[in-house]
Each structure stands twice: as C-alpha cells, then as structure tokens.
Write a structure and sequence with these properties.
By secondary structure, this protein is an alpha+beta fold. The protein is 22% helix and 40% strand. It has two domains: 174 residues, 2,3-Dihydroxybiphenyl 1,2-Dioxygenase, domain 1 (Roll); 173 residues, 2,3-Dihydroxybiphenyl 1,2-Dioxygenase, domain 1, CATH 3.10.180. The longest helix has 13 residues.
Length: 362
C-alpha cells in the first residue's frame, strides 16, 4: 500500500494549553483548533480488543513556512501538521502512552489513496491488530494500528481523505514571548528519527508496512569524515557511535537508528528511560552559516539549546538537536547546516538495502 502524505504528527502531552504556547513560541504555530471529546461524543471505543471508555482533548495546528527556503528532500517547503492530544481519563491509546511512557510522539497519521477495505486488508495480512478504535460524534471513525513492536514505539493511523479539524480556534501570539528572537524557520519534515533495538530486522517491517523499498545504511562514529567533532551535553567531546538507515515514504522519510556505544541523547535520555520510539524530527535545513548561527542563538535564548551534534563529512556539514524535549512534548528538533559539497567518499552510504532484489527461496 502506498502512502502519499503525512497528515499529522500525534503528540501526547499532559498539558495541552501549555504545549500549544511552546509550539507558538518555538515554531510559530499561532493558530490552533481545540476540541474536547467527552463521553457523550465518543462511542464504539475498543482498546486491544476490549470495549473501553475514555476522554481526551485535541489541538490541531500547522507550522508556517517560507517558500523561498529549502524544503525537505529537495522538494518545495511546506507546513508541518501537529495534533496535540491530552488524555483526560479512561483507557485510550493516548492515556496508555502518557501513563506508560510519558509525553512524546505516540502516532503518525498517514494519507493513502487506498480504500477502507484495502487498508483493513493491508494490516490484516500483516497480522497487525488495532490498538484502538472509536467513533466521534456518531460519524467519524478513528483507528490506530498497533505497529509499536515492529516500527519502533509508535502507532499508525491511516486515512484516505483529509479529516477537517473540529472545535474552537485559539490564536496564540508566540512573538510576544520571544523577546525579539525569531522562531525556528522549519519547512517540512525530512525524516523522523526512530530508535530501535535491531535496525536490520526492523527494515523488513518498514518495507512491509510502509512500502519503503530502499534504505541507505551508514554507521556514524567519532572518525574523520563521519562524526568529525561529536558532542553531547557536558561530554564535549564525546566518543559515541550509532548505526542508521534512511528511507522515504510519500512526502517524508525515516532515519532508523541503533545505538552502538557511548553516551548520547539516544540512549541516556531516551531509550534508557522509555525504550524504542520517535526520538526527533528533522524540519530545518540551511546552507547559510549566518542563518544557522542566528537559529542556534535564538533557540538557546528561548530555552532550547543544542544538546547533541557534530560536524559531519569532513566539515562539509553539521547537525544538531535542539532540546525541545520538555517543551514540545518528548522529542527533539534536528537542524542541519550544509556549508559545502562533501567529497563523494564522505557522502556515500556504507551500503544500500534494496528490497526490489529480494529473493524468494523455493
């Protein structure tokens, strides 16, 4: 089954109103559609095959973007859709995530052209059960497929038509809380960084579930041309390494990550605490050093400094994670500055996993 568009990033938070203010301040998401789903609006709720009940609040918002800035994967810049969810009681997939793991990206909503029957068959053929389903206002069905064990700690919601946000519009003036600093100029999701226990095993599930046929595999460690100057918090410099694979589905991608060794945000502040999951999103790319410096300065002043990163590819680029974990809700924001064109030997993956060459044994 083909996926065409990222329709929503589902972030579970304990304080929806406060989280929305942080999104307005850091990412300039100033308009939110907020709704309260009480018992009288929810029916046919099922969790893990059992009749259940629960309540929650949601807020839908999208980031603005500058069309003149570089978009993800060489495409045009675009907005990023967020759905904030605050559980308010009972057994829902949102409350389960919050109480068992904490705040974070609990689900992704993906759009497909496939019919409802094809969606059902796709997950049925893969033996992926529903984690939860429900009907809202007697007409709108929501289903969350339990891909946590196979994709790395998050659910999938699949829709075949846009679902309009309902509720009351709330306007938040993020600029008033920035003290003259700018918000991070994000231009669309390049990839989600997902930490897993076994990278090579998980790639087969990414192929089967999301239809990704090719992954560029690369190991990163403190070495010239790879991680040229890695740092992590007050470990500066730091000796660590990680093993990654990148692949793309629709208008977004995934960086699947397996920790190799050494202290990093990946293990010390993420998997050691909560296990596999979506660790970061990559929405900010620049080719301008002054633009990068301005972003780092602004995010630091706004309470989201870089907490891990490195020069890459013999100094041709640098990546860094802005520490938005406690403000945006359990994940980091990645930024990248590309200063020059790297030599081909530093750009090349270690190998490419190409599932189109898969052999079926007799």
């Amino acid at each position: 089954m083909e996926f065409t568009r990222l329709a929503g990033i589902g972030v579970v938070t304990g304080e929806l109103d406060r989280a929305a203010e942080h999104y307005a301040r850091l990412l300039d998401v100033g308009e939110w559609t907020v709704d309260d789903f009480s018992d009288d609006r929810l029916s046919d709720m099922v969790s893990h095959g059992r009749r259940t009940s629960g309540t929650f609040r949601t807020a839908f918002g999208e980031t603005p973007f500058d069309p003149d800035r570089p978009g993800p994967m060489g495409a045009e810049a675009r907005s990023i859709p967020f759905e904030l969810v605050q559980p308010t009681g009972g057994e829902t997939p949102f409350n389960e995530f919050l109480l068992s793991i904490g705040e974070g990206i609990a689900f992704l909503t993906l759009e497909t052209a496939a019919s409802d029957a094809t969606i059902e068959q796709h997950f049925g053929d893969l033996n992926i059960p529903r984690a939860s389903s429900m009907t809202i206002d007697g007409s709108t069905a929501r289903t969350f497929w339990d891909t946590r064990a196979r994709l790395g700690g998050y659910l999938l919601e699949v829709v075949n038509q846009p679902r309009p946000a309902t509720g009351t519009v709330r306007i938040i003036d993020g600029a008033s809380s920035r003290n003259g600093h700018r918000a991070l100029p994000v231009t669309g999701i390049n990839h989600f960084g997902v930490i897993v226990d076994d990278l090579m095993t998980s790639l087969e599930d990414y192929r089967a579930i999301l239809g990704i046929q090719k992954f560029d595999v690369k190991t990163w460690q403190a070495e010239h041309g790879r991680l040229d100057a890695p740092y992590y918090r007050d470990h500066n410099p730091v000796a660590h390494g990680y093993f990654t694979a990148q692949g793309f589905a629709g208008d977004f991608g995934f960086e699947v990550i397996q920790v190799k060794y050494g202290p990093s945000h990946y293990n010390r502040e993420f998997t050691d605490q909560r296990g596999p999951g979506i660790h970061h999103v990559f929405p900010y790319l620049t080719f301008d050093s002054s633009d990068w410096d301005q972003s780092v300065e602004a995010m630091t002043a706004l309470g989201a400094p870089l907490c891990m990163g490195s020069d890459l590819r013999a100094g041709a680029a640098e990546y860094g994670y802005f520490d938005t974990f406690d403000t945006l809700g359990g994940f980091l924001i990645e930024g990248v500055i590309r200063r020059s064109t790297a030599e081909p030997k530093y750009m090349a993956p270690d190998w490419t996993v190409d599932f189109t060459t898969k052999i079926t044994e007799a």
